Amino acid sequence: MLPFTGSPASAFQTTLVADSVLSVPLQRAVRLEVILPPGYDSQSAPYPVLYLNDGQDLPRLRLQEIMDSLYQQDVIRPVVVVAIHAGDRIQEYGTAAQADYMKRGSKAGLYTDFVLTELLPHIQKQYAVSADAAQTAFAGFSLGGLSAFDIVWHHPDRFSRVGVFSGSFWWRSKAFSTAYNDYHDRIMHVLIRQTPAPALAGKKALQFWLQTGTDDETSDRNNNGVIDSIDDTLDIIHELEAKGYRKEQQIRYVEVQGGQHNQETWSAVMPGFLVWAFGR
């Protein structure tokens, strides 16, 4: 993992642009912050692009500073980052096909519609970014990570890589009880498992970067000595492997010793994700 090395020279500094999209399905203005690479040229060949949920957390993530440092080290390609500020994240983030057992994620389908039919066209029109799935990634944190994973999994024609930081893969169709059944009740796991072979053929190019922290939480619902967030993520990896994906080649798993469920931990591992997704 590459460290953040501090203040870069001005020649390596990114530019932050404020933007917004008035969304019909979400019925609100969605605030955006767009990070342009050093020397950005609107007339150049299209840049790779990263879409990022929970864009309101950019200051705590120190993302712009981190990218400046990585450009100074010359370890990532020039990339445009589109940070999407959350609205009603408990309802807009989740799995588009199904809300959880408490009806959270009821607008996840509308959020996916916004991303595909409003956000991507807007960004591709206003900025010199690629529309090629091979040059497009999506990432998110916690529930925003689940949202990013769900969108990428179901739309491999638009995205090829996903980054999930402490993802909410516990998302369930039934409430936890002593008679819980993780195999049947965790929604994203089931969605992967039930993907038919014809649909899977179009997903073979997908790549996954999945991170957890050993202090993400304390819950251990099956009493196996492993916290739930790690168990849930490892089980996602098992589902992906059952579909033919291979670790290191297509799946990168990062487990942070002492890592917590917060922006400081995610900021610390961000350089590794960016090099994985956009390294030279």
TrEMBL record:
Gene3D superfamilies: alpha/beta hydrolase (3.40.50.1820). Coiled coil: none annotated. It holds the Pfam family Esterase. Transmembrane segments: none annotated. This is Esterase. It comes from Arsenicibacter rosenii.
